[in-house]
Amino acid sequence: MSPSSAARRDDKADAPAAKPPMRDALVAAAFQLFLERGFEQTTVDDIVALAGVGRRSFFRYFPSKEDVVFPDHERCLADLTDFLSATADEGEPVEPVGRVCDAARLVFDMYAENPTFSVQRYQLTKQVPGLRAYELSVVWRYERALAGYLRERFAGRRDGTLQADVIAAAVVAAHNNALRSWLRSNGRGDAAATVDHALRHVRSAFGGPAVDAPAAYASGSVAEDGDVVVVVTRRGAPLWRVVQELESTLGGPG
């Protein structure tokens, strides 16, 4: 190896680490100041000064100081919407309740990607009424996206719009219950298991596949050949659920 190439390698090794993208730098600076001074006491000028950029750079990425607290929700909402709309192109039957539960997991995964940041945001939001109101508006947009998907799938059903809105609200409630439980634990534990446990209740109640559906959901008796089998199930239960219970009673498919 020539001396010049060795020198270039050493210079590269000694070079400072690449700066984070400006958007990330603004978020990091904002949260450092929010935690040190408080949200209300921190101005946009304070944030850009610490980040080493101008005001125009801040507003290129964030419309307001509140938006910097929730920097990832626009991306996540777009991902969720794409996830739901993609089902129409797959060509395979999709169980709608299970699909919206899977969509809700995308939101939970976004929080779980960075537990430290998510816990800090949770603690900050609890302290600032304006941020709580902002968060509610974000949650409402997720719920509307889920409800919109379900309304399309339930079009033509009796009370289809009502069912869609109720199920979307239940998914959001289950997701938020799991999320807050995980955040209160400072982001410890199995995040995936926490949200799965909560969403399983929605699947069980509204027709999505569930491993531990309530035993009272359907009942029957084991039949001998030629016996009549009676299965009792909820009004409006999906056909796949009725078939599943018949197969279970009869000891397997067919």
Any chance you could write out the topology, listing elements then pairs?
Blueprint: H1 3-14, H2 22-37, H3 44-51, H4 55-61, H5 73-85, H6 96-112, H7 115-127, H8 129-153, H9 160-184, H10 191-206, H11 239-250
Helix pairs in contact: 2-3, 5-6, 5-8, 6-8, 6-9, 6-10, 7-8, 8-9, 9-10
Search tags:
mainly alpha, Tetracycline Repressor, domain 2, 11 helices, Arc Repressor Mutant, subunit A, 254 residues, elongated, disordered N terminus, single chain, 3 domains
Description:
By secondary structure, this protein is an all-alpha fold. It has 3 domains: 15-61, Arc Repressor Mutant, subunit A (Orthogonal Bundle); 70-206, Tetracycline Repressor, domain 2 (Orthogonal Bundle), CATH 1.10.357.10; 215-250, no CATH class. It is 65% helix and 0% strand. The protein has helices spanning 3-14, 22-37, 44-51, 55-61, 73-85, 96-112, 115-127, 129-153, 160-184, 191-206, 239-250. Helix 6 packs parallel to helix 9 (160-184). The chain is elongated and about 55 Å long. It starts with a helix and ends with a helix.
